[in-house]
Amino acid sequence: MPGSLEPLDLGVQIPYHFRCPISLELMRDPVTVSTGQTYDRPSIESWVATGNTTCPVTRAPLSDFTLIPNHTLRRLIQDWCVANRSFGVERIPTPKQPADPTHIRHLLTQSASNSNPYPTRLSALRRLRGLARDLDKNRSTISSQNSREILVQLVFADTGSESSELTHEALALLVLFPLPESDCAAVASDPDRVAYLAQLVQHSSMEVRVNSAALIENVLAGSRTAELRAEISNVDEIHQGVVSILRNPIAYPRALKIGIKALFALCLVKQTRNKAVSAGAPETLINTLADFEKCDSERALATIELLCRVPDGCTAFAAHALTVPLLVKTILKISDRATEYAAGALLSLCSASEKSQNDAVAAGVLTQLLLLVQSDCTDRAKRKAQLLLKLLRDSWPEDSVGNSDDFVCSELVVPF
Predict the structure, then answer these.
(1) Could you give the CA distance from residue 376 to residue 379 in angstroms, rounded to a whole number?
(2) Considering the domain boundaries, does residue 4 fall inside one?
(3) Final residue of a domain: which of 54, 87, 120?
(4) What is the full per-residue pLDDT of the chain (416 aa) written as tens digits?
(5) Are residues 144 and 40 part of one domain?
(6) Residues 197 and 253 in one domain
(7) DSSP string of 43-78?
(8) Read out DSSP for 340-387?
(9) Which among 414, 275, 268 has a CA at the least distance from the CA of 347?
(10) DSSP letter string over 181-226?
């Protein structure tokens, strides 16, 4: 075995025994398996997760899958990094170690037991939340310990009274995990629990409101029947609470991401979209559209398109002076999906209002649509653009019509 590998771009040789035998990269969290061989933790965990039961180097069977941190080797690697700092090598941080499953079970038992003092239960939940935030491995371990059933019971233990710190901590921990269908049904089918969610989403604490919106989105996403989803989306206060969360993008950035996911999930229930409109969703979405990141912008535009299919929603969006210009500007700017949703929303608005048609033309929609139908965008986006072009023909300025007649006659294919 060579003493060192080929030099890297850093211009320094990494000692062979500092490299993981699986990834051949510098180890950041060296752990030793039952055969005595040392690997970087992510590499050996991935090896085992794919069904391998032998040591990658020796091929000997692994008697167990316990990973023991090799602190001595890790400190040697850190010292080597410091010694080679002049070559651009950064010192690897001391990794946080995964929590012992026994310790996690103990904390869950402490938090769930009504016989324990209130401060003890609250402290146990806070420690669990801290562990879940530290490492994905800890979240996986907590999830495997029947935690979700315990946390659901803690969140909804006193639905008839004011929420407590214990409820808030349990809620903050619960939303870190996806809920199984059975738990979603247990929440959505219980009127008291749904009413309690409506109370939490309008809480004075922004963190509680955002976490409750995250739970609402989880329950809606995990409910398999329209009837169950409607039990939540039919509550006015839930729409009002979720929309209000979106109005604080600067003061609480996480509110945007969670809020738009929850609002989109609510608006997927067709028969209750008017409630989102009544809660002020159209104005709020247009006012915050520029603040979303790419993925969230797509979801926001999809929500706008859904609400534009409702007469009241279409009217509300048309009444906002920035709606049409923003939608036109969005075409071909963010992503194919965003373009498709923007074109769909414009199609609904222009089909319902001559003023929206004139606003779209004034905002330069003609050029955008002609570029769109010639682009590599989705077929659905192109079909919407073609329908919109046909709808707007009478609104085009005369010079635009003259310059685009040949293109439209040859390329415009309207699906039936």
Answers:
(1) 9
(2) no
(3) 87
(4) 344 444 444 567 889 999 999 999 999 999 999 999 999 999 999 999 898 999 999 999 998 888 899 999 999 999 999 999 888 888 888 888 888 889 999 999 999 998 999 999 999 999 999 999 888 889 989 988 889 889 999 999 877 677 789 999 999 999 999 888 999 999 999 999 999 999 999 999 999 999 999 999 999 999 988 899 999 999 999 999 999 999 875 667 788 999 999 999 999 999 999 999 999 999 999 999 988 888 899 999 999 999 999 999 999 999 999 999 999 999 988 899 999 999 999 999 999 988 998 898 998 888 888 888 888 888 888 899 888 888 888 766 655 544 444 444 333 333 32
(5) no
(6) yes
(7) HHHHHHHTT--B-TTT-PBPS----EE-HHHHHHHH
(8) HHHHHHHHHHHHH-HHHHHHHHHTTHHHHHHHHHTSS--HHHHHHHHH
(9) 414
(10) HHHHHHHHT-HHHHHHHHHHTT-SSHHHHHHHHHHHHHHHHH--SH
Same domain, 166 and 217: no
Q: CA 32 → CA 97, 141, 282, distances in Å?
A: 13, 20, 56
Output the CA–CA distances (angstroms, integers) from residue 409 to 169, 290, 403, in the order listed. Answer: 62, 36, 12
Nearest Cα neighbor of 318 from 360, 372, 367 is 360
CA atoms of 214 and 196, how far apart (whole Å): 14
Tokens, residue 321: 């002076």
- Classify 407 in phi/psi space as left (phi over 0), alpha (psi -120 to 50) or beta: alpha
Instruction: Give the domain-ending residue among 177, 204, 232.
Output: 177
- Asked if residue 307 belongs to a domain, the reply is no
- Lookup result for tokens 């010292």: 79
For residue 364, the one-letter residue type is G
Q: At what angle do helices 118-134 and 101-112 cross, to 10 degrees?
A: 140
φ, ψ dihedrals at 245, nearest 5°: -65, -35
Tokens matching residue 74: 């890790």
Query: Are 33 and 102 in a shared domain?
Result: no
- Count how many residues are written for the chain: 416
Structural domain contains residue 5: no
- Count of the separate structural domains present in the chain: 4
Distance CA 210, CA 202 (A): 9
pTM (predicted TM-score): 0.78
Structure token digits, residue 84: 């080679």
What DSSP designation does 30 have? E
Domain encompassing residue 364? 321-416
